[in-house]
Amino acid sequence: MPRLEEHCWRRSCTSRVESNNYSRENWVASKAEEMMSIITSVLSNVYGSLHSLQTANLIRRGLVLFTVGVFLALVLNLLQVQRNVTLFPEEVMATLFSSAWWIPPCCGTAAAVVGLLYPCIDSHLGEPHKFKREWASVMRCIAVFVGINHASAKLDFANNVQLSLTLAALSLGLWWTFDRSRSGFGLGIGTAFLATVITQLLVYNGVYQYTYPDFLYVRSWLPCIFFSGGVTVGNIGRQLAMGGVEKLHND
């Protein structure tokens, strides 16, 4: 009988130890699961906050670029109309600033797209643009672009070829002075080509017309204007993106 009682006692103690070990393992597992859930929740909240900040920053940059594009379209198109470089039908001449109503929104949208593309392409190529990255340089670039557009309407040359070559040299000088990046040059060429094709289609369909066209339905210097405009808007977009990145780091 004593042996039986001792055996039962030993089995009871072993069961208690095993039960305590099992309960301790369950407690550790539950705590680890709780910690993992907390870490996952914190990481998801941080990711959501960063994503919302990036989205808000992207929308803000797009709105600024759209506003800049609308303003430049109004001012520059007014200059072209006053100098009789572009002619619109009489029914659209009574709209804002004596130009077609659809030009400012289209130019604003194009400016937003191009300005957002420049920093994205820089990031994709792994070549962050660091040449003259300050707002004073951007403002000088805008002034040079307005001057090139003004020259296209005011300067008188013996023929359009001389004017086109002069504006091409000025546009390349603008790129060399304020950009000097492969991505900027490539996107400027792409912007000039696409915008020229769209303009050709608009003029071909009688939406408006150019006086003395010498490059199919438009003037031969028009791609130079689009190229310099793309580089200018791209520099604005890069500067806005750099400010947005600094703000995200500070936050």
Automatic annotation (TrEMBL):
Gene Ontology annotations of biological process type: cellular response to insulin stimulus; cholesterol biosynthetic process; SREBP signaling pathway; SREBP-SCAP complex retention in endoplasmic reticulum
Cellular component GO terms held in the UniProt record: SREBP-SCAP-Insig complex
Biological role stated in the UniProt entry: Mediates feedback control of cholesterol synthesis.
Keyword check for Transmembrane: yes
Source organism (scientific name): Salmo salar (Atlantic salmon)
InterPro entries named in the record: INSIG_fam
Listed name of the protein: Insulin-induced gene protein
Gene transcribed to yield this protein: insig1
Superkingdom, taxonomy of origin: Eukaryota
Alphabetized UniProt keyword annotations: Cholesterol metabolism, Endoplasmic reticulum, Lipid metabolism, Lipid-binding, Membrane, Steroid metabolism, Sterol metabolism, Transmembrane, Transmembrane helix
Family indicated by similarity: Belongs to the INSIG family.
